[in-house]
Known about the structure:
By secondary structure, the protein is an all-beta fold. The chain has one domain. 0% of the residues lie in helices and 71% in strands. It contains no helices and eight strands. The strands form two sheets. A four-stranded antiparallel β-sheet has the order 2-1-5-6, with no helix packed on it. A hairpin with a 4-residue loop joins strand 7 and strand 8 (83-102). The protein is elongated and about 60 Å long. It starts with a strand and ends with a strand. The mean pLDDT is 93.
Amino acid sequence: MAYAVFQTGAKQYRVSVGDIIDVDLLDGEQGKELTFSNVLMLGEGSGLKIGQAVGSASVVAEVLEQYKGPKVIAYKYKRRKGYHRTVGFRRRLTKLKITSIGA
């Protein structure tokens, strides 16, 4: 089974064809195909290509959904001072389905 490691934003993902992953928000409406050309590694069986050996490889993915992730709560507290603050946020995410890995 072939796999690839690619980078989008500040994160790297190891994917195979058919995988569904969540990444930080990307431009693209539902059903659109995105191509990632920043491939760091390709692997198939015992063969492995890293760095310049990868060449012009790309990962193609289909946008399944744009959504907000679960709420994350950050709570600040200083003892004996009567100070506490609660801040929450929800990350905006894009759900992708990997359709092909090209070398």
